[in-house]
């Protein structure tokens, strides 16, 4: 098993390297070009000053402030943003676009996670069991009505799988592309990365300062995350059972 | 604008020339590891469409593989504990076993590594501890990541050692969380007096259904 594990990670590394390296080189060259052009065109601008500005921008970006347009986008730690952050912490998604920078905030985050993560596991377990119960009840009813035997259970399971797939992975990206302006593929990527709790944070909903979101948006997304995670956990469990 | 695009692709704009790439094999290996363990720092993430699609399917098979692997590891750790206890020759009490397990694990995975990190990375102990916890719980914010400071020189095995530590620490912390969730569940059930009917129903569904992460029960 260890060999398979290490081999699998190595395989992924090789493929990703091959896929991502060219784009990165291109971006770096583009950046350098812009840098030199800027310095060349505006001779009043000094090299070190520009360097300092760049470093300042990076620091600010790391702590969550973006510098688009004429103002800075603040207000990320308002209640709604903090609520979303708490969810991302206890579900272990952990986007990271927003993370505590004060020592007190970090200590609180650790303690919060220590109790929040088991709580989250319990909740997901409950939701998963409810879902499974529902599926089995439907299967029983199908058996009564159509007098199939074992096939009903299998049919119900595939049906549940397909509905879950539609509801949690295939339809939400449509919503995201409409609200966030992402492509469908980016929305799908975001959905999967979120529901599997990997949560890179390169795409996060509701972070674009130029767009207005309806008030129900974040709450609906939170519900979707919860149920989607429970469903995906069930699917992964079945996969593990198959693996073993 | 260009700065942010470059940053998102993982290029560090602070240098004067194109820095050593972020997607060499060692870094990609580390990245693949963060995907499979669902830590997902995000300081590095695929920006090409092909990379993103590959990432999705890669995780689809990698995450169960990782869980199965951690499960095996957890069982192995558990077995180790049992042999250790027999060695001490105390009549097996679950509490004592649990206490030993918790303290050794805490020392080995939570207290000691931050010292190493603060020395190598130049973080304070508090920052090292914060990074340790956020990583082992797989939250993985990505505000702190080992081995990413371009100004520092790391010994080649540093990343591999960190990876090994992460894997074992994950197995241990997963055990801790499962035990914690178990205790919380029992506590909540006592409080809410679940009826016998739902318990019976739960018993029949438990054959097919297991908790989200494989639960490894410490035998009492």
TrEMBL record, chain A:
GO cellular component annotations of the record: plasma membrane
A GO MF label: outward rectifier potassium channel activity
Lineage: Eukaryota, Metazoa, Chordata, Craniata, Vertebrata
InterPro entries according to UniProt: 2pore_dom_K_chnl (IPR003280), 2pore_dom_K_chnl_TASK (IPR003092), K_chnl_dom (IPR013099)
Entry's localization field: Membrane
Spans through the membrane: 79-98, 104-124, 154-176, 188-209, 221-243
Alphabetical GO biological process terms: stabilization of membrane potential
Coiled coil: none
Entry-listed glycosylation sites: 70
Main location (coarse class): membrane
SUPFAM superfamilies recorded: Voltage-gated potassium channels (SSF81324)
UniProt keyword Transmembrane helix present: yes
Listed name of the protein: KCNKH protein
Membrane protein topology class: Multi-pass membrane protein
Top-level taxon of origin: Eukaryota
Species per Swiss-Prot/TrEMBL record: Vireo altiloquus
Similarity comment: Belongs to the two pore domain potassium channel (TC 1.A.1.8) family.
Key words of the record: Ion channel, Ion transport, Membrane, Potassium, Potassium channel, Potassium transport, Transmembrane, Transmembrane helix, Transport
Signal peptide start and end residues: none
Ranges for domain Potassium channel: 73-131, 165-243
UniProtKB/TrEMBL annotation, chain B:
Residue intervals of the Potassium channel domain: 19-75, 107-185
A Gene Ontology molecular function term of the record: potassium ion leak channel activity
Keyword Flavoprotein attributed: no
Record bears the keyword Membrane: yes
InterPro entries in UniProt: 2pore_dom_K_chnl (IPR003280), K_chnl_dom (IPR013099)
GO annotation, cellular component aspect: plasma membrane
Pfam family, one: Ion_trans_2
Principal location listed in the UniProt entry: membrane
GO BP terms: stabilization of membrane potential
Ranges annotated as spanning the membrane: 49-70, 96-116, 128-146, 158-181
Compartmental location: Membrane
Recorded topology in the membrane: Multi-pass membrane protein
Tree of life domain: Eukaryota
Keywords for the protein's UniProt record, in alphabetical order: Ion channel, Ion transport, Membrane, Potassium, Transmembrane, Transmembrane helix, Transport
Family per similarity comment: Belongs to the two pore domain potassium channel (TC 1.A.1.8) family.
Protein name: KCNKG protein
Organism field: Vireo altiloquus (Black-whiskered vireo)
């Amino acid at each position: 098993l260890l060999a398979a594990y290490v081999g699998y990670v190595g395989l992924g590394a090789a493929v990703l390297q091959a896929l991502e390296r060219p784009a990165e080189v291109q971006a770096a060259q583009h950046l350098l070009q812009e840098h030199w052009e800027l310095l060349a065109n505006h001779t009043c601008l000094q090299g070190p000053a520009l360097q300092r500005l760049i470093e300042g921008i990076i620091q600010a970006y790391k702590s969550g402030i973006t510098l688009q347009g004429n103002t800075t986008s603040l207000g990320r730690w308002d209640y709604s943003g903090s609520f979303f952050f708490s969810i991302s912490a206890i579900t272990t998604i952990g986007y990271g676009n927003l993370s505590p920078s004060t020592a007190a905030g970090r200590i609180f985050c650790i303690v919060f996670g220590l109790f929040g993560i088991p709580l989250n596991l319990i909740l997901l377990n409950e939701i998963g069991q409810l879902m499974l119960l529902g599926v089995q009840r439907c299967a029983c009813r199908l058996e009564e009505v159509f007098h199939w035997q074992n096939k009903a259970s299998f049919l119900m399971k595939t049906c549940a799988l397909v509905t879950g797939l539609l509801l949690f992975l295939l339809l939400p990206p449509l919503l995201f592309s409409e609200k966030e302006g992402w492509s469908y593929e980016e929305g799908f990527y975001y959905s999967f990365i979120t529901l599997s709790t990997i949560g890179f944070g390169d795409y996060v909903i509701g972070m674009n300062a130029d767009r207005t979101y309806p008030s129900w948006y974040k709450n609906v997304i939170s519900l979707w995350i919860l149920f989607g995670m429970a469903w995906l956990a069930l699917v992964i469990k079945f996969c593990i059972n198959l693996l073993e | 604008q260009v700065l942010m695009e470059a940053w998102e692709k993982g290029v560090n704009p602070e240098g004067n020339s194109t820095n050593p790439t972020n997607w060499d094999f060692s870094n990609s290996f580390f990245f693949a590891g963060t995907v499979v363990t669902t830590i997902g720092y995000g300081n590095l993430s695929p920006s090409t469409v092909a990379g993103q699609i590959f990432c999705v399917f890669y995780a689809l098979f990698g995450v169960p593989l990782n869980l199965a692997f951690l499960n095996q590891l957890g069982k192995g750790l558990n077995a180790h504990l049992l042999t250790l206890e027999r060695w001490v020759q105390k009549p097996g009490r679950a509490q004592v076993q649990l206490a030993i397990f918790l303290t050794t694990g805490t020392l080995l995975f939570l207290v000691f590594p931050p010292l190493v990190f603060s020395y190598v990375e130049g973080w304070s102990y508090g920052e090292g501890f914060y990074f340790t916890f956020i990583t082992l719980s797989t939250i993985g914010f990505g505000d702190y990541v080992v081995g990413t400071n371009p100004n520092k020189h790391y010994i080649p095995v540093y990343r591999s050692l960190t990876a090994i530590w992460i894997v074992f620490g994950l197995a241990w912390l997963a055990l801790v969380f499962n035990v914690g969730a178990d205790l919380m569940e029992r506590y909540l059930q006592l409080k809410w007096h679940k009826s016998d009917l739902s318990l019976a129903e739960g018993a029949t569904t438990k054959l097919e259904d297991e908790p989200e992460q494989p639960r490894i029960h410490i035998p009492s």
